[in-house]
Each structure stands twice: as structure tokens, then as C-alpha cells.
Amino acid sequence: MIRNRTHKRDEIVTTIRERIAEINERYRTGPDLYFYRRSMNLRGISNSIESFLGDDYHIEILYATLVSWDMNSRGAKMKHFDEFKGNILSCLDLFKKIERFERSGATDITELESILRNTYENLNLMKTGGKLVSNSKLLHFLFPNLLMPMDRANTLSYFYGNTGESLNKYIEIIKFSLEIINMPENWENYLDDGWNSTVPKMIDNAIILLVGRSIR
Q: Phi and psi of 126, rounded to 5°?
């Protein structure tokens, strides 16, 4: 369970309001930013998740972005591309349900929680153990305005004080992030052409700034 929820929410919101632009000066740049922006642009011009994933090049970009985001290093090992692609396409019906929820503008996330639990269990992108990091990153690439990416060193450490993964933690953090996304705030005022491309990513960036470990 996330402790001090109100304090953490206020801390993240204040960081976005006052210093989120720092992430572009202090965080890493290179292939990870290039492929991220490329995947965001391609997803943004796709009419639907089905049309986006209907292009092999788009899936290749997702694969390359995950590699550039350290999902095939530091002991992590991704599946070969054909397995990766097959697993993603097998989840297309679940992705379409997430898309319908997003487009409906609904704020009651009971239905979304059920879909995300199913999706999380069916996504298997890694040869090595662990799902939360790879799944959350991929789902962010597919639904960048709804779902935030997560990692162990920043996200899990910030919310739980440990790096242990679980489906319940993923769901709890998504619920927490949606509370911020749905606040009556002009979040678009803080977006930019760097790392702050969407509100969910800004929440992630605020956590990175607060933890400080990845920007030393």
C-alpha cells in the first residue's frame, strides 16, 4: 500500500508545477529519447491501436525503444523479436478495450482496472523474470496519455521503499497517477518537445527528479 498518498501527490504536483523542465537538462539524452519521441509521434498519428500495431515497423520501433530504455541490459533480457511481436498481437483485443475506455472519457476506473489486470497477466515480453517494468513501459508507449511508465529504482522505491514487483503495485500506482491526471489543472502548460510529452510521463519525470538517483 502506498503510504502518505496525499503528501506524495502534493509533492509530485508541486514538482511538475515548479521544476519539471529540469528533466530535459538533467536526465539522459541519446537513443532512449530519440526512440521514445519516434514511438510517440508514430502512435500519435495512428487512428487506432489496431492500425498502429498492424504495421511491423511500429512494433520494431516499440522493440527498439524498450531496448534503449534498458530492457535488454543490466541483467534484463527481452524475448526475440518474433516472440515479442506475437505476444503483443495476442493482446490486441485487450488493447482495444483500453482504447475504448480512454476514448469514452470515463473517470470511474473499475472497468479499466479489470482490463489492465488481464492485460498485465497476458503480456510476457521478457526472457528474464519480472513484468512490471517492461509491461508498464510498453503500455505507456501504446497509451501515452493514459498510462505511466514505471521502474524499480525510481517508481517502486518512491512509492514503497523497496523494488519488489507485483500486479497489485502496478494497479495501485496507475490509480494514483490517474488521480493527478484528472485534477483540474492545465497540465498542457508544462508539456514540451523533450521528455515531458504527456502528463503520465511528467508524473514519471517528477518522481525521477524527486528520487534523484537517475540524474546524479
A: -110, 145
Q: Of the given ranges (1-5, 16-20, 131-135), which has the lowest mean pLDDT?
A: 1-5
The predicted structure's pLDDT at residue 157:
97
**Cα distance between residue 155 and residue 173, in whole Å:** 9
72 confidence band (pLDDT: 50, 70, 90): confident
- Write out the residue range of the structural domain in which residue 166 sits: 5-215
- Residue 147 backbone phi and psi in degrees, to 5: -120, 135
- Cell numbers representing residue 69 in the block: 530504455
φ, ψ for residue 88 (rounded to 5)? -60, -45
Taking CB atoms within 8 Å and a gap of at least 24, the contacts of 35-40 are 35/61, 35/64, 35/65, 35/68, 36/65, 36/68, 36/69, 36/141, 36/195, 36/197, 37/193, 37/197, 38/65, 39/65, 39/141, 40/141, 40/144, 40/197, 40/198
Of 40 and 106, which is predicted with more confidence? 40
Please give the tally of structural domains in the chain: 1
SS (H, E, C) 151-215: CHHHHHHHHHCCCCCCHHHHHHHHHHHHHHHCCCCCHHHHCCCCCCCCHHHHHHHHHHHHHCHHH
Cβ pair 36, 69 in contact under 8 A: yes
For residue 87, what is its C-alpha cell? Answer: 505476444
Nearest in space to 147 (alpha carbons), one of 203, 187, 74 = 203
Residue-level length of the chain: 216
Cβ proximity of 52 and 81 under 8 Å: no
